[in-house]
Sequence to fold (334 residues):
Amino acid sequence: MVKLQKTEPLSTEYLESLGFVWHTDSDESNYVSDELVVLSKAEAEAYYAATNELYDMYVEAAEHVVENNLFHEIGIPFNLVDIIKESWENDVHWHLYGRFDLAGGIDGKPIKLLEFNADTPTALFETAIVQWAILKQNNMEESSQFNATYEALLDNFKRLLTLEEDVSTFEERYEGWNFLFTSVKGNSEEENTVRLLQHIATEAGYNTEFAYIDDIEFDSEEGIFYNDKNYELWFKLIPWEDIALEESDLAMLLTNIIKNQKAIIFNPAYTLLFQSKGLLKILWDLYPNHPLLLESSFEPLEGQKQVKKPIFGREGGKRKHLRRKCLRTPLSRR
Fold:
């Protein structure tokens, strides 16, 4: 049974002072729960170990796709294959952050992977800021939270230059790199998430700027520009599959920018391999019956309860689907 602890909810005024403006759902209910999920130290550490192991498995599965040219099988748009290969083969294209969705792990139930939101994951603001604020406003011990997302992002921004776990040499390698952060206009959740990442990058030491995607110039020979200033590093909260399907000219420009080594883009194009739910089938092929995995197939699973999931969720029923074995343990709501 999931153990919950009641808290005093954060006021909308306080949430908005933090920059969290998507606090109320369409039915006027609160988006942020007033209950905390209480885990034992062993349960928390098991989640940590599971995500580390899963990430290593995803790397192996992605390498398998690249080596065997299985891009079509997992739904990767053809006009992103070159940029995925370019980003995969060069260590400077560092994966900044992602989000694993897991089930189980409580009351002795096994942890199971549901999916990996590796390219443009949501809930970053909630995890890095709001969870901390709930503890602080309720006068609770902040160190009891098994969550160091903000600090991990700070270190990861530094690793973009050190390319190693040790970030102590960041200051020696930092030479005034310019970092541009981008979202689309009209989506406050995405914009504020991007601005949070910009804030962390500024704290890390970069020269940062924010711009909407429509205001940026792209040149395949010279790189990425905003207000006539060149940016070597670019973060975009715009899904790679959307760029491929809706902005094919931009996909070509970005491919050439990467090939000409004029900019580094975050998250890298290869994170679309991780994002594809088709990779869950590759994982099952490479690690059959692994305790962290659910059986996955492009064909119906005979005689088993199962769910059908689109390869890329944003595309709904328009694209290839994956079949997955259903869990027989209840899933917790967000």
